[in-house]
Amino acid sequence: MGNKYLVEECFFLTPRDVGRRFDRIRKLGTNILEGRDDISYWFDDMSEPTCLFVSVDGHEPQKFIWEPVELTFGEAAYFHCGCGYKARKLYLLPSGNEFKCRKCHNLRYALSVLNSKSIAGRVIYRANRLHKLANSRACMGRIFYDGNFTKRFERFLGLCDKAGLEDIVRGANALKELVRG
Ligand SMILES: [Zn+2]
């Protein structure tokens, strides 16, 4: 069963998110991810980590090879996805509990499936402008949650409807169809 999620709908983890403590005090044991208290992580070795373990919502931890990269300023790293791909980002599906690379999760980019001139494309661009958001990821996050409109976006559509902006409402519904595949 292939899923139809968009990159923009998924939470993602970067080496920075978990490695930030590295130039300061490395905390032994389990860390809780900032802003996501359902995600915990730890390393095999604090001084020279080679593996990162991540557990979502108390599920069996996933193990990722951690490959540090020397940079002029600071430290960077890759995760190795289970498929072997060296990833800068590992994605979590909405209400999922496994981090994987974009390919393994079969994620598409919204802007690659949306023609900016289509009705669905226009609604994204317009919503972006209206919300004064810097990027479509933030925008999509506010539009969809798990294939449905967020409450916030439903309210926004209600206002559009009242204001006679039917094309936005139509476009949003076309977009939802697209996201659900
Ligand atoms: Zn992968």
Structure, explained:
The chain is of the alpha+beta class. The protein has 2 domains: 7-100, no CATH class; 110-180, no CATH class. Helices cover 31% and strands 25% of the residues. The protein has 6 helices and 11 strands. It has helices at 15-19, 110-113, 119-131, 136-143, 151-162, 166-180, and strands spanning 11-13, 31-33, 36-43, 51-56, 62-70, 75-80, 86-87, 90-92, 99-100, 144-145, 148-149. The strands form 3 sheets. Strands 2-3-4-5-6-7 form a 6-stranded antiparallel beta sheet. Strand 10 and strand 11 form a beta hairpin. Helix 3 crosses helix 6 and helix 5 packs antiparallel against helix 6. The radius of gyration is 19 Å and the shape is elongated. The two termini are 13 Å apart. Bound molecules: zinc ion.
